[in-house]
Write a structure and sequence with these properties.
The complex is a heterodimer of chains A (about 325) and B (about 375). By secondary structure, chain A is an alpha/beta fold. Chain A is about 35% helix and about 15% strand. In chain A, strand 3, helix 4 and strand 4 form a beta-alpha-beta unit. Chain A is globular, with a radius of gyration of 23 Å. The interface between A and B is large, with 78 and 81 residues.
């Protein structure tokens, strides 16, 4: 009963604070990149930020001595502003770095799985090239030679069968794809049965048998460079690699070689390292590569939900309340 | 533009290399049944008129599917001496609408028994007229269904999630930062309206189910309860209801007098301003001027078209200038697997007609 009262008191306090925050100008200060413009939040999401008094990175830098000490939260949307020592050193009152839009959100599962399918299908059926030909001022005939590869009935190998990987499996099932997966741990029998997925304990087996290999792992020390020269050489020459995890999971130099030599048919990447690639990077010049600028979660609904979550977390931390999505370091 | 041409040539060369790699593999796996048929036909092969091999016609590496059972002659060669070749030709293969099965051509083919189409749509063939000449018409249903349903999903996803724009930004020489755009539309959980729930429409429904989409459909006739329940589809007797509620409208009908101009100003006005139109049937199902107006004014969000009228569009057509249009050059069945199956079926139909056997896919007038 004592616990109940404490919980109720906390909730009530939070509610009062919430009301207070929205009613008066004593809102906590937060640093963000900027609202609107090329690098900032979408205008549609600006209202979610109303719980804070916002100062942009640019404005902070104009007078860091004045603004720096006020800031209690850093709202980092898709890596911006970067939480580097140089910046953090200007923020003595900082209580929280709230990250949104990448990595640990969990709100982005559906959108990311959808995007993986979008990349897979666009690559397989040469959508980009088709559109370019259809739009080309020189096009006089419908080309016969624009041939893609069959998706229905092909074999899909999912590396990393977490939430996103499993949603990809659910989507591919409708295309009658044969699903193989490789994961640190095996999924339940029911899960496997629902998508008729087969576990490949050895990554090599998955690589050898798949027509499409989708990489959906978290980036860790173990998954860095997971797909290297050896793995690419095991893949079929008719196979397509789809990466929606992180650029560093794939050895990019090895990928370039495999694509140039016909070791694999094509690659479709929403992630690279770095992002964006330097403009003279060989990947940008290859005809069998589809690259998108990390837009796997870029839908209005998902982005909004992620901004809301980020702000919620930041507010909780600033108020000293339990933080819904605290990320602890691995040593803790 | 020149840069694009060089890239395309490079791609064509690269693709030929890939194709010959695949061809080597496929030759090793030719089924015994086909070899047996070859022995049986080793006598005089019947003559067949085709458009051409290579260039705008059949892929070189697939042409053996034709030559295995037929002595083929290309349209251009035929026209050099129609009297000589005309009498011999018993079959005509129509691929990508070519050659056109018009009176002027058919009248020079006195021995013609069959016009065998590659593909399921036969709106470009005057079936009553051809039949009146005592010539059979065949098409290739079923084998096209999966690849076509796949392309519908590919177009839907690419349009919704701005894959093409994304690639253009990612590879643009001027790109220095990852930006917030492009923002797309959510596919998961969205409402999909399928106009035309035949084999292809149904396969589209099966694929969309995996995305947790709410599926509505409009069709001349309602499907069975089992069919509806299997994909979670709801019947809209009135197309207006489907148009008002859908985030994505996919057209998967045959082209007939009833479906010509099915989607015009009125239908586009009923659609949501956030909706996407996907067309994989025929260009003429959509009134293109109305579509241009709707896209320009924001009446609908975007369109993704594998088919237009004509194909390709004239280079100054307004559709080509709109930022919210994705167009592919009728690639709905463009995979080696499906193309091969279509050609095999087309040849099978023609062979049956020429040898007086029951014809698998005859199109009756």
């Amino acid at each position: 009963k004592y616990k109940e009262i404490r919980v109720l008191k906390t909730l009530l306090l939070f509610e009062l604070l919430h009301v207070q925050l929205t009613n008066c100008e004593d809102k906590p200060w937060a640093l963000d990149s900027e609202v609107g413009g090329e690098f900032g939040y979408l205008e549609e999401q600006a209202d979610i930020l109303r719980h804070f008094q916002i100062i942009s990175h640019r404005d902070l830098l104009q007078n860091p001595e004045l603004h720096g000490p006020k800031i209690q939260a850093l709202l980092m949307w898709k890596y911006c502003p970067t939480a580097e020592p140089a910046l953090l050193g200007l923020l003595p009152s900082l209580k929280v770095v709230a990250s949104g839009g990448v990595g640990t959100d969990h709100l982005d599962v559906d959108a990311t799985a959808d995007f993986a399918m979008g990349l897979l299908l666009a690559s397989a059926r040469e959508i980009l090239e088709g559109h370019q030909i259809a739009m080309d001022p020189n096009t006089v005939h419908i080309p016969q030679s624009l041939m893609g590869v069959e998706v229905t009935g092909s074999t899909l190998g999912i590396i990393g069968m977490g939430d996103i990987g499993y949603k990809i499996a659910q989507r591919s099932f409708g295309f009658e794809m044969k699903i193989l997966y490789h994961n640190r741990t095996r999924r339940s029998v029911e899960d496997e049965r629902a998508v008729r997925g087969s576990y490949c304990e050895r990554l090599d087996d998955l690589l050898r048998r798949s027509d499409f290999v989708v990489v959906a792992v978290k980036l860790t020390s173990r998954t860095t460079g997971l797909i290297g020269r050896r793995e690419l050489s095991l893949m079929k020459p008719s196979a397509t690699l789809v990466n929606i995890s992180r650029g560093q999971v794939v050895d990019q130099d090895a990928l370039v070689e495999a694509l140039q030599s016909g070791g694999i048919r094509a690659a479709a990447l929403d992630v690279t390292h770095p992002e964006p690639l330097p403009r003279d990077h060989p990947l940008l010049g290859l005809p069998n590569v589809l690259i998108t600028p990390h837009i796997g979660t870029n839908t209005n609904n998902t982005a909004r939900a992620m901004v809301e979550r980020m702000v919620e977390n930041a507010l909780a931390a600033v108020k000293g309340l339990p933080v819904p999505n605290e990320v602890r370091s691995q040593s803790q | 533009m020149r840069g694009l041409m060089y890239v395309q040539r490079g791609r064509t060369l690269w693709r030929s290399a890939q194709a010959s790699r695949r061809l080597q593999v496929s030759r090793l796996h030719r089924p015994a049944r086909q070899l047996q048929q070859k022995r049986v036909m080793e006598g005089e092969k019947p003559w067949a008129l085709i458009s051409e091999v290579g260039e705008q016609g059949y892929l070189e590496e697939l042409s053996d599917i034709l030559t295995q059972h037929f002595q083929i002659i290309g349209h251009r060669d035929f026209l050099r001496d129609p009297q000589l070749y005309g009498e011999k030709i018993q079959a005509m293969f129509v691929w990508d609408f070519k050659p056109a099965a018009e009176a002027s051509l058919l009248s020079s083919l006195p021995s013609l028994k069959v016009v065998a189409n590659g593909g399921v749509g036969i709106d470009h063939l005057d079936v009553p007229y051809i039949s009146s000449l005592g010539v059979k018409v065949t098409n290739t249903p079923n084998v096209v269904d999966e690849a076509t349903a796949d392309i519908a999903m590919a177009l839907l996803l690419a349009s919704a999630r701005k894959v093409v724009e994304g690639h253009q930004i990612a590879t643009d020489p001027k790109t220095t930062h990852i930006m917030q755009c492009p923002m797309g539309e959510e596919v998961s959980g969205a409402t999909l309206g399928i106009v035309g729930m035949g084999n292809i429409g149904y396969k589209i429904a099966q694929r969309s189910k995996g995305f947790d989409m709410r599926i509505l459909y409009h069709n001349r006739s309602r499907r069975s309860v089992e069919d509806e329940q299997a994909v979670g589809a709801s019947y809209c007797q009135k197309i207006d209801d489907l148009l008002k509620q859908s985030d994505f409208v996919v057209l998967a009908v045959n082209l007939t007098p009833e479906t010509t101009g099915l989607i015009s100003h009125r239908e586009l006005s009923l659609m949501r301003s956030t909706a996407t139109l996907v067309n994989i049937s025929r260009g003429l199902v959509v009134e293109q001027d109305a579509l241009v107006t709707a896209l320009r004014s924001g009446k609908i969000r975007a369109a993704a078209l594998d088919v237009t009228h004509p194909e390709p569009l004239p280079r100054d057509h307004p559709l080509l200038g709109l930022p919210n249009v994705l167009i592919t050059p009728h690639v709905g069945t463009n995979t080696y697997t499906t193309t091969r199956k279509m050609m095999q079926k087309m040849v099978q139909n023609a062979l049956a007609a020429v040898t007086g056997q029951p014809i698998p896919n005859e199109v009756k007038p």
